[in-house]
């Protein structure tokens, strides 16, 4: 039932010599030429082969072309259409999906009588289809290679057909020589050719046979064609378990056989190559025996125990192939084709031990890669910072997330519970450069942000005050200020920081605190020099530099600025501080260059908005909230000054801790929060794919417009509740555990009121029962006694510090009283809103009691504090969306929108 | 993906119109069992194993009962029977009751694809009922045939003639056996074995072949077996949760084959290419958690998902994340490395850092961009690494990964954990 071909096979074989497998005369038609894989691979093979692809097919795409550097390859709907257009070919390449491959083979065979070879690249062909493909090929006298093959390549003819052997640069692996390769693995076909080159052996024909159950061009016919190929002096075979192909092969030239896969005897089903299944009489052990019998050897060749004969050697490790081949060929009085081109010794191209001391044998030094990879690595090393892949960031964030189990949010990898233990300035660094930094960073942030607080005499203050006087809430007041910190205002500082980063990266700066670093080679052009320094002293710059000196802040960039011989500008100093803060994270690839460029803007926005939140009468020439500018720049922490601005009084240490804890807790609540949606919408609408057009100040306006007394004011809801409960209580200091109040009685009193309210509502038939602010949580419920882990954390944290909060204590008494009275089925948790309210009220109690802060002002203060915290989280979110997002990616498809009537 | 035994085998054979013994499943009532014994004189009680399990008879896992009491006793003995074949351990869950088929002749029949003939091949002998390997080769016919025309009656007739089979069995087998080709070929099978087929005589002495045991293997890459509507859990036992998750990503574009080698291993080795998979897993031995092949140029999204699943299941216990492959031909190194790096970054963000040393060995298109993406991520995460090019001996790279693993076990892991903690504290 099969055509008669060459040799005495029980089946058709049309290849007489390996030299006929891939020739310069072969003309190729590629099925599914525009498919994902073919469109990358086919042009490379086409060019390598001098233009062997005459046309391709892709149903429905007739008239299109596949572009190559040798000209366009035409595409037709079908093979018949291509042939009717006058094309002729003898090789078909099948890049079709598995369900279509068999039909593709049938099409090639039926339509083209001149066809004599088919190469099937398709993986995961069903055995059913492979059976029928085999039969079709046999009946019609067609040689088939594959399936699951990466095709064939001939280094003498410089031809590659039907796959990607040699990758995107076939000449790199395939050098003309005397060794033929037949490999069950496509990857190893190339890898073996590469290894052979290292030892001085080139190749003739390399065949990736595939490793399906049906291997259409296999070892027996390879051995036959090898014998008839004058160019090939020997062969390398790479064989995996499964199939009797190698058993039937009759070699008359030397062969090194690599048999891998003994471990597969342990498997109960196939992994990797489909036919590579263990068991039976064709496993790896059996194959080793077949080859040993053919070569007349009694063991496996290893460097330690080289067992070989003139007929061949068996190895079980592909790295031993070159050595085995050289040994076998020496027995045949044959020397390598050319001098060895390298060694296979371990050569790390990149390595880092992160300062951990490895044993000497493992601490391998980085070795320069072979050309052209060394140049590519050098180029890569010149890039600083990371680049994030862009994706749709609707309801997604790379900056913040909310753990659904614990409900604890985190910002740039730091949980809000940890952030709550850091001062405001640390959290600003965390948001803007992704790392909280150390003392030096805090000094830099305190001075830099502090320098923007006092807005005396600026239009920003006028705008903010006008907004305030028009009765706007604090968010609208701050938004009025944000609108005036536009791109032009920060443009010089952004340019300057970019210059500093590029120049110092080029100069090889490792750490921004390097006191010894020689920046002699960093020379700005005149325009940049004009940005960094000026002829006259810049008072703002001088004050900031004085502040930095007083704080003992170190910075190679500030040092550089001062070395330029003129007076540093305010923009120059801001850029130098920004570069210092960003340097470590940038070098550690935690942030992008884009983030660093925007850093001066972020710093300026934080300082300005904090300042704008404070009424105009607190901004005086040289003083802010009664504190001199020098003191703010040189000594005060930002946390202190922000507290002062918000509450108008100097904080006690315990107040300061409560303040920073609240800021930390409120930094973010994940990308789903309305405020963050506002930020992301603003960035998305500007188009982050053109980052220079995105306005950071507008992103903050987005946040500010998306917050309000409902979102941002819920701390006050709890405060109002607590004020009501403690209305008649004679409480002087909420931090004094000896307050003398009977909290349990207080809780029982409210419980009775609430139980009555609930009962009345039910009697009235209403299920709309108001919940108690700060009590219960949709996630932390259903246990006999429930806890919000965030509340527990703060409780324990304060306990450890020896600090007491009567309001927090009251909440704990309340949930117990609700349960004891049967109002709740379980002991509800005290949730994080209650904690925030309790902390806020503790902090505000004294001003409230003294009358300095009336009840209405409490609400504004609570809301403003939320704005302080979330502003910082928003900047992190804006930076993230800017780096990773796509244009308009936050919109909702119309199909998901609803009309309501 | 194998099915053995008559519980499901009988249904499949009935689908092809091939006579079978009468079978009751584990849920059979005592009345039904009693009736079955009454009809057939006796029943065989066999344990039900999922997947392909052989040599049950030799292991004494076959009961025969001529009365209900014995049948129930055998059911109790075999219901949860345990069976070891080679390295594999199986546990039964249920029994079948199969009506005995008295017969003089037992026939062995199978169809499979022979790599010697490179064609579907029928194996047939009338000396069946025992393992085929135990029968003298001269008494067995192995006949390849053309898949385009299928197994034809004349092929069976010629084989039986050459085997000098008793005349009375030839005609019924020639009529019935070709039906099995339809079942084999059209429903995605790779092997089909009936042993024994017992030749049951009717009142006139005419013989009918009755399949009394069944074994078949299905081709995972052939959707045709889906037409059989087999119970969805029939093959599920073959896969761990991890493998199941990865398998859901299995498409023709990019491999995603995994096998859990040692759930307590310490080297997690995403491997690219079947050849690398064989080499690497062989050298890593029990240190490897999984054996995998993720080659075949997987797109970014798929690779990231595969890596995400791997990390979710195994990263916590991993000492060495070992990304290894040869010099790829078409797998884009940038896409695959970027995907794995992003998955690692996401894992660290979601679950916190875990002490890890990353060893990479790879070559291929977009190599340096890919290595750069991986390096940058590892730098950002504070994870130590060694990245080798394709000019380093792959087996030496495997050896290096093993040595790092040993060092990690001997205190290195603690050092890295401390370093990660410090990095976080500093941050």
UniProtKB/TrEMBL annotation, chain A:
<dbReference type="InterPro" id="IPR032875">
    <property type="entry name" value="Succ_CoA_lig_flav_dom"/>
</dbReference>
<dbReference type="InterPro" id="IPR016102">
    <property type="entry name" value="Succinyl-CoA_synth-like"/>
</dbReference>
<dbReference type="GO" id="GO:0009361">
    <property type="term" value="C:succinate-CoA ligase complex (ADP-forming)"/>
</dbReference>
<keyword id="KW-0816">Tricarboxylic acid cycle</keyword>
<protein>
    <recommendedName>
        <fullName>Succinyl-CoA synthetase-like flavodoxin domain-containing protein</fullName>
    </recommendedName>
</protein>
<feature type="domain" description="Succinyl-CoA synthetase-like flavodoxin">
    <location>
        <begin position="176"/>
        <end position="282"/>
    </location>
</feature>
<dbReference type="GO" id="GO:0046912">
    <property type="term" value="F:acyltransferase activity, acyl groups converted into alkyl on transfer"/>
</dbReference>
<dbReference type="GO" id="GO:0004775">
    <property type="term" value="F:succinate-CoA ligase (ADP-forming) activity"/>
</dbReference>
<dbReference type="GO" id="GO:0006099">
    <property type="term" value="P:tricarboxylic acid cycle"/>
</dbReference>
<dbReference type="InterPro" id="IPR036291">
    <property type="entry name" value="NAD(P)-bd_dom_sf"/>
</dbReference>
<dbReference type="InterPro" id="IPR036969">
    <property type="entry name" value="Citrate_synthase_sf"/>
</dbReference>
<dbReference type="Pfam" id="PF13607">
    <property type="entry name" value="Succ_CoA_lig"/>
</dbReference>
<dbReference type="GO" id="GO:0004776">
    <property type="term" value="F:succinate-CoA ligase (GDP-forming) activity"/>
</dbReference>
TrEMBL record, chain B:
<feature type="domain" description="ATP-citrate synthase citrate-binding">
    <location>
        <begin position="242"/>
        <end position="401"/>
    </location>
</feature>
<dbReference type="InterPro" id="IPR016102">
    <property type="entry name" value="Succinyl-CoA_synth-like"/>
</dbReference>
<keyword id="KW-0012">Acyltransferase</keyword>
<dbReference type="GO" id="GO:0006104">
    <property type="term" value="P:succinyl-CoA metabolic process"/>
</dbReference>
<keyword id="KW-0436">Ligase</keyword>
<dbReference type="GO" id="GO:0004775">
    <property type="term" value="F:succinate-CoA ligase (ADP-forming) activity"/>
</dbReference>
<dbReference type="InterPro" id="IPR032263">
    <property type="entry name" value="Citrate-bd"/>
</dbReference>
<dbReference type="GO" id="GO:0006099">
    <property type="term" value="P:tricarboxylic acid cycle"/>
</dbReference>
<dbReference type="GO" id="GO:0000166">
    <property type="term" value="F:nucleotide binding"/>
</dbReference>
<dbReference type="Pfam" id="PF16114">
    <property type="entry name" value="Citrate_bind"/>
</dbReference>
<dbReference type="GO" id="GO:0042709">
    <property type="term" value="C:succinate-CoA ligase complex"/>
</dbReference>
<dbReference type="Pfam" id="PF08442">
    <property type="entry name" value="ATP-grasp_2"/>
</dbReference>
<keyword id="KW-0816">Tricarboxylic acid cycle</keyword>
<dbReference type="GO" id="GO:0003878">
    <property type="term" value="F:ATP citrate synthase activity"/>
</dbReference>
<dbReference type="InterPro" id="IPR013650">
    <property type="entry name" value="ATP-grasp_succ-CoA_synth-type"/>
</dbReference>
<protein>
    <submittedName>
        <fullName>Uncharacterized protein</fullName>
    </submittedName>
</protein>
<feature type="domain" description="ATP-grasp fold succinyl-CoA synthetase-type">
    <location>
        <begin position="48"/>
        <end position="197"/>
    </location>
</feature>
<keyword id="KW-0547">Nucleotide-binding</keyword>
<keyword id="KW-0808">Transferase</keyword>
């Amino acid at each position: 039932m099969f055509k008669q071909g060459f040799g005495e096979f029980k089946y058709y074989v049309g290849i007489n010599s390996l030299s006929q497998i891939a020739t310069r005369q072969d003309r190729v038609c590629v099925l599914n030429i525009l498919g994902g894989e073919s469109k990358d691979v086919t042009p490379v093979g086409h060019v390598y082969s001098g233009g062997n692809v005459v046309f391709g097919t892709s149903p429905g795409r007739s008239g299109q072309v596949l572009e190559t550097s040798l000209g366009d390859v035409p595409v037709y709907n079908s093979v018949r259409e291509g042939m009717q257009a006058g094309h002729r070919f003898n090789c078909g390449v099948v890049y079709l999906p598995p369900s279509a491959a068999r039909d593709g083979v049938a099409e090639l065979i039926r339509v083209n009588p001149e066809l004599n070879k088919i190469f099937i690249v398709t993986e995961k062909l069903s055995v059913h289809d492979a059976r029928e493909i085999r039969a079709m090929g046999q009946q019609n006298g067609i040689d088939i290679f594959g399936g699951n093959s990466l095709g064939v390549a001939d280094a003498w003819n410089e031809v590659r057909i039907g796959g990607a052997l040699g990758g995107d640069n076939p000449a790199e692996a395939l050098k003309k020589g005397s060794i033929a390769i037949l490999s069950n693995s496509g990857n190893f076909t190339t890898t073996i050719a590469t290894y052979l080159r290292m030892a001085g052996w080139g190749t003739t024909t390399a065949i990736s046979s595939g490793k399906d159950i049906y291997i259409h061009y296999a070892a027996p016919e390879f051995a036959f064609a090898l014998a008839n190929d004058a160019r090939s002096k020997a062969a390398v075979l790479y064989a995996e378990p499964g199939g009797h192909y190698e058993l039937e092969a009759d070699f008359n030239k030397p062969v090194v056989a690599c048999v891998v896969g003994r471990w597969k005897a342990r498997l109960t089903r196939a992994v990797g190559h489909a036919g590579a299944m263990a068991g039976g009489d064709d496993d790896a052990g059996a194959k080793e025996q077949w080859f040993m019998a053919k070569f007349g050897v009694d063991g496996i060749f290893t460097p330690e125990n080289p067992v070989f004969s003139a007929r061949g050697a068996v190895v079980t490790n592909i790295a031993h192939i070159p050595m085995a081949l050289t040994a076998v060929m020496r027995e045949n009085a044959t020397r390598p084709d050319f001098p060895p081109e390298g060694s296979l010794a371990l050569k790390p191209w990149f390595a880092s031990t992160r300062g951990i001391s490895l044993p000497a044998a493992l601490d391998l030094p980085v070795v320069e890669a072979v050309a052209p990879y060394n140049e590519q690595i050098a180029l890569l090393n010149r890039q600083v910072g990371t680049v994030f892949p862009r994706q749709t960031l609707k309801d997604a964030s790379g900056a913040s997330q909310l753990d659904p189990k614990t409900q604890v949010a985190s910002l740039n990898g730091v949980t809000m519970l940890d952030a709550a233990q850091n001062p405001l300035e640390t959290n600003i660094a965390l948001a803007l450069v992704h790392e909280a930094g150390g003392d030096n960073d805090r000094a830099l942030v305190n001075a830099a942000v502090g320098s923007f607080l006092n807005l005396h005499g600026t239009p920003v203050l006028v705008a903010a005050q006008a907004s305030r006087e028009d009765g706007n809430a604090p968010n609208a007041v701050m938004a009025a200020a944000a609108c005036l910190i536009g791109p032009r205002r920060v443009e010089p500082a952004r340019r300057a920081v970019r210059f500093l980063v590029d120049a110092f990266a080029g100069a090889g700066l490792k750490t921004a605190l390097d006191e010894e670093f020689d920046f002699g080679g960093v020379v700005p052009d005149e325009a940049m020099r004009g940005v960094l320094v000026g002829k006259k002293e810049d008072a703002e710059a001088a004050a900031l530099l004085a502040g930095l000196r007083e704080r003992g802040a170190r910075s190679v960039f500030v040092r550089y600025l001062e070395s330029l011989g003129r007076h540093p500008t305010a923009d120059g100093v801001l850029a130098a501080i920004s570069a210092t803060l960003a340097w470590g994270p940038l070098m550690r690839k935690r942030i992008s260059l884009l983030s660093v460029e925007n850093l001066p803007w972020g710093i300026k926005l934080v300082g300005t908005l904090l300042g704008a939140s404070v009424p105009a009468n607190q901004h005086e020439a040289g003083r802010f909230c009664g504190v001199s500018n020098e003191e703010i720049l040189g000594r005060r922490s930002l946390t202190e000054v922000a507290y002062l601005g918000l509450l108008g009084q100097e904080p006690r240490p315990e107040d300061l801790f409560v303040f920073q804890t609240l800021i930390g807790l409120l930094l973010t609540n994940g990308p789903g929060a309305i405020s963050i949606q506002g930020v992301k919408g603003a960035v998305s609408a500007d188009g982050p794919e053109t980052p220079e057009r995105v306005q950071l100040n507008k992103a903050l306006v987005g946040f500010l417009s998306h917050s309000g007394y409902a979102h941002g004011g819920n701390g006050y809801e709890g405060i109002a509740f607590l004020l009501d409960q403690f209305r008649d209580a004679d409480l002087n200091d909420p931090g004094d555990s000896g307050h003398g109040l009977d909290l349990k009685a207080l809780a029982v009193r409210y419980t009775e009121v609430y139980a009555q309210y609930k009962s009345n509502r039910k009697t009235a038939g209403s299920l709309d029962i108001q919940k108690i602010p700060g009590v219960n949580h949709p996630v932390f419920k259903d246990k006999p006694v429930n806890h919000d882990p965030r509340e527990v954390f703060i409780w324990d944290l304060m306990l450890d510090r020896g600090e007491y909060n009567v309001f927090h204590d009251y909440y704990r008494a309340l949930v117990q009283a609700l349960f004891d009275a049967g109002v709740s089925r379980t002991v509800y948790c005290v949730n994080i809103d209650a904690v925030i309210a309790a902390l806020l009220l503790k902090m505000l109690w004294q001003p409230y009691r003294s009358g300095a802060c009336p009840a209405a002002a409490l609400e504004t203060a609570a809301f403003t504090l939320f704005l302080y915290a979330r502003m910082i989280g928003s900047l992190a979110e804006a930076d993230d969306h800017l780096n990773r997002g796509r244009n308009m990616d936050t919109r909702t498809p119309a199909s998901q929108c609803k009309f309501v009537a | 993906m194998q099915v053995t035994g008559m519980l499901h085998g009988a249904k499949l054979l009935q689908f092809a119109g091939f006579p079978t013994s009468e079978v009751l499943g584990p849920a059979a009532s005592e009345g039904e069992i009693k009736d079955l014994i009454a009809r057939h004189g006796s029943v065989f009680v066999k344990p039900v194993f999922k997947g392909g399990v052989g040599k049950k008879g030799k292991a004494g896992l076959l009961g025969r009962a001529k009365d209900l009491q014995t049948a129930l006793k055998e059911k109790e003995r075999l219901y949860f029977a345990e069976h070891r074949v080679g390295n594999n351990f199986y546990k039964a869950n249920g029994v079948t009751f199969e009506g005995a088929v008295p017969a003089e002749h037992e026939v062995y029949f199978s169809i499979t694809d022979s790599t010697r003939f490179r064609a579907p091949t029928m194996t047939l002998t009338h000396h069946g009922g025992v393992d085929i390997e135990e029968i003298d080769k001269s008494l067995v016919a192995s006949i390849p045939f053309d898949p385009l025309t299928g197994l034809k009656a004349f092929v069976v007739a010629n084989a039986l003639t050459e085997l000098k089979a008793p005349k009375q069995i030839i005609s019924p087998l020639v009529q019935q056996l070709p039906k099995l080709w339809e079942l084999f070929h059209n429903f995605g099978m790779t092997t089909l074995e009936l042993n024994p087929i017992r030749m049951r005589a009717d009142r006139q002495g005419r013989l009918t072949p009755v399949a009394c045991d069944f074994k078949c293997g299905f081709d995972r890459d052939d959707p045709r077996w889906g037409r059989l509507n087999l119970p969805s859990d029939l093959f599920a036992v073959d896969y761990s949760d991890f493998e199941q998750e990865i398998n859901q990503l299995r498409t023709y574009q990019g491999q995603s084959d995994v096998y859990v080698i040692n759930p307590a291993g310490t080297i997690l080795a995403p491997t690219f290419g079947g050849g690398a998979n064989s080499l690497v897993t062989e050298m890593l031995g029990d240190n490897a958690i999984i054996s995998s092949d993720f080659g075949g140029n997987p797109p970014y999204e798929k690779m990231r998902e595969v890596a995400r699943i791997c990390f979710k299941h195994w990263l916590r216990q991993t000492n060495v994340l070992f990304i290894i492959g040869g010099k790829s031909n078409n797998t884009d190194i940038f896409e695959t490395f970027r995907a794995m790096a992003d998955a690692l970054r996401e894992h660290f963000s979601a679950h916190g850092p875990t002490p890890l040393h990353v060893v990479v060995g790879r070559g291929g298109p977009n190599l340096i961009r890919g290595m750069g993406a991986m390096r940058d991520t590892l730098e950002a995460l504070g994870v130590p690494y060694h990245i080798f090019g394709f000019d380093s001996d792959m087996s030496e790279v495997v050896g290096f990964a093993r040595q790092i693993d040993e060092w990690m076990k001997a205190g290195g892991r603690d050092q890295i954990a401390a370093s990660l903690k410090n990095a976080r504290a500093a941050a």
